[in-house]
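Supplementary Note 3. Input sequence used for the single-chain structure prediction.
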Amino acid sequence: MRVAVVGFVGRLGRALLAALEEAPFTGMRRPIGWDQPELELDTVTAASFGALLDRERPEVVIHTAAWTDVDGNAREPELAMRRNGLAVGEIARACAARGTDLLIISTNEVFDGRRADGRGYAPGDARHPINPYGAAKAAAERLASEAFATSAGRLAIVRTAWLFGPPGNDFPAKIAGAALRVRVAGEPLRVTGDEVGTPTYTPDLADAIVELVGTDSPAPPGSVTIHHLVNGGRVSRADWAREVLRQLGIDVEVVDVPAATWQRASTPPL
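The predicted structure, written as discrete structure tokens, is reproduced below.
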């Protein structure tokens, strides 16, 4: 099977290329990686992406590229919609016109996080984003679904959350750096205690996506399926920080504070 990964230099894209290299269904055909300058989310069109498809002829496209700076998205909502919403619609239209299967990566932030029944969100729950990043991702889901409504190809939407992993500069790395700084100052580390989620290790997510792509019982042509792929369990940001520091052996007190402690451009779902 010929698989192309859009955004292969990102955290998840790198993990996916590595996982696909080991996948039995790719055989001798190495996965294709597309990224800048070959593909630019600000300017991509169905025609320009279609030219890439016609040149390389993948059977499956996995779209991981995104502008993930949620505060940047909130400051420039029109740009966020272009990169994270409309661009996905263009890519989906090109794939749908050729019957090429497409898998797009979405986010927990298509939900508002305000439910109080103790359950996690299911794939069939109604989207209700409360920030521009979530709104753009919700638009991407809708546009891609519309594109595949009459296609011979298949669309899979994978929602995930709180990604961490190589090459670093993720939540654990930032917490470690912050802890070392406050330890020098003799202060505790203040971390949000009322935002709860599921930290997800990108190599694990990549393995799950590869398993989904290579399933022996694929969805029928023209179908749209939604999958929630995360690691197990749930934790607050503060408790995640405590576990990171425990594993690293950094002895710093972590103090829970509400998310409202800091003013942010974006409003995260708690």
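The chain has a mean pLDDT of 95. The chain has two domains: 3-162+200-228, 171-196+234-261.
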